[in-house]
Fold each of these.
Amino acid sequence: MRTARSKMASTSRAHRALVSCPEHPDAPLVEDYHAGDMICPECGLVVGDRVVDVGSEWRTFSNEKSTKDNSRVGAAENPLLEGGELSTMIAAGPGMDCRDEFGKPMYRNRRTLNSSDRALLNAFHEINQMADRLQLPKMIADRANTLFKQVHEGKTLKGRSNDAIASACMYIACRQEGVPRTFKEICAVSKISKKEIGRVFKLILKTLETNVEVITTGDFMSRFCSNLGLPQSVQKAATHIARKAVEIDLVPGRSPISVAAAAIYMASQASDDKKSQREIGEITGVAEVTIRQSYKSMYPRARDLFPVDFKFATPIENLPTQ
């Protein structure tokens, strides 16, 4: 490749029209961003150099997708941390510790975090992992992070595990965003027991003086029926059954999740897509005996629970009695 320096070479895009190949003036020039050159595609002549390189300042050789490419100045600053995660400090005090062997000020990257920021980072990492496992959007993880920071700054839950607080914050965030998850589902993706998450959950509500919407059977019905592979007609019938059972007080003291599980069992048994109590229990996290007890309370009034337009594949009199 021949190399020539043109006096008209310019690194600005506005002046690109002034740069041309002396032998092929009409040829559109090709810009090599990595080399910083402008090249004629016809003869390979470099007609302009010293073009600003807009590529990455570091190169990543790892094939792992999770590895961050440290291009330019790195990731955005986390607003939940004080002063950001990384800053550059210039030592400016007296003494030889602040200067190098030539007496020049030393430049240091502050990579070490104080204990408060380190606890926040660990909690944020745990919350983001839980959100990924539950396949929840970033919006919910951000709300859980904010809740954790509020609790952490209040210092009213000292002695409680940060992992337990993070799990409870995730549970609260899900309910506040209208996509509630059960304690068992949160427990399955965290390292904390269901009982401890429940205790911390109540403490956080009292500490932050906040509230969450009351859970109803309809909050879980769509997700449970979808995971069970049930059609829309069965989901609609199960929703109607659960709502009517609550309205006429057939299942007093039962949790909305157990009522939803029993309603799904009743609706599926009356359709062509029958599901066993074990299958429903695996998806909903409700014990088979709990489903059986709730269903037993609802069965005597089954005729009043089904919607009018439901098409029975199995008549009500042939449904299981328990």
Amino acid sequence: MGHENITEFILLGLCSDDNTKVTCFVLFSLCYIAILSGNLLILLTIRGSRLGEQPMYFFLSYLSFMDVCFTSTVAPKLITDLLAQEKTISYNSCVAQMFYAHFFGATEIFILVAMAYDRYAAICRPLQYTVIMNRQVCYGLVMASAVGAFIHSIMQVLIIIQLPFCGPRQIDHYFCDIFPLLKLACTDTRLLVIAIITTTGVLSILTFAALIISYIIILSTLRTRSSEGRRKALSTCGSHITVVFMFFLPLIFTYVPMAASVSNDKIFALFYTMIAPMFNPLIYTLRNTDMKNAMRKVWCRDKLSRGR
């Protein structure tokens, strides 16, 4: 089968009005700069301080790295297309973009699960914590996240490369994703759509439910703690819960379609491709004393050593 005579697609993007495009260009450029600088700041702070020895920050550094990679598969094309006359993307680039967006996004989901497991072990099993979350386990969880994400992404690619594309080549989205591509295939894809909703959609819902249940267990355990211990645990769990909601709810709305409306998909996709990665660094630093102290040490130490 294959993609027959279509060698490139046209991305319709977010908006068609010229004034809106310029506003979006400025806005998203600033968002992208904020995502890169915020997440790299977290990554370098954790790597440059003692925080990386703690499992929670070890995972957080990988989450920041995934945020940078995930947004970088989508944002540069979205931003340049806002001012471009021809918004084309080659068939191969389109498939590659879809693969990387799903790979980095799914890795991020699995890392969020690993972080919830870490919080559960720290709060509910404090005496065995160092044994449960030793360094090998942490690396194993990150590797498992990447392998799981790779399997998920390669399945999406295998579905698309089997399909014939011969007719319209306009993708009603700002990046290549599986649903907009299925709409362009010259064959009946209804069964495939159902299959993807049941795999990706149900996976998102189950993961989201598992995360929420784990936090309910954690919070119920906290009732027996001292007020100081409770406050500290609540601040780290609060950050996690906020990120989980910001990332998962739009994802569920995208992959469990309530109606066949792609325009809403674009808005939901903006949440998990641009808005959540931009707020993650703020959520994790503003509420976190350890992180703020580490930043002062790492970045002020550098200034002091240069001053000398």
